[in-house]
Amino acid sequence: MVDVIISGESGKIHAVYHKSATESAPLAVVLSGNPRSGYHMNDRISYAIFRAYMDIGFSVLRFNYRGVGDSTGTIGTTADNMMDIATVIDWVQNQNEDSDKLWLSGSHIGAWYVLQAMMRRPEVSGFVLVSPDNTVSDFSFLSPRPNRGLLLQGAMETEDAIEFAPHLTQILKKQAQIDLETIRIKGADAKYAAPADLKQLYNDIKAYVGRENAETKLL
To answer: Dihedral of the CA atoms 29, 35, 38, 42 (nearest 10)?
Structure first.
């Protein structure tokens, strides 16, 4: 696990990268939540996601959007952050030319960035959404893009958030032909504040991604 600096549209992007010992290992990129709400690449959720991929043999990267931590510039718009996401995906793919698998995972607003990036990246093999921001209502970016992924939620999130999950599942299936599996972690809130909740998040990601990646290898 090493710190890397990637050249972005707004200057340097600070990232942490783990390179798998297997040259053709699948790749993963972790997208953190809204920095204006205190989220960044080293928050507890982003790190747990990162470790889940790392511990099942992926080459994985997490990073700070522009204006966050040691990434230069000022905190940007969704369009700015999508540019940074495209830059880091290009970087990790260029570092791993023998890999043909790419997974994206994100928490809160980062979950929406995952979906937007997937619409632009046909090579995305799978994805994980962690407690997606339920205030987002613009689905106009969705187009047919058959895939399947995991939505993780805390069972103690707000009523609106809990009700939002089946709505999102229906929208993704109808507009994008995406199948979404949902797991609710008993006792957890959207911040996964208790160590046991975070550990369960980690375990659920490992189990789902490991299973899906193994099934893909058999095709």
So the answer is: 30
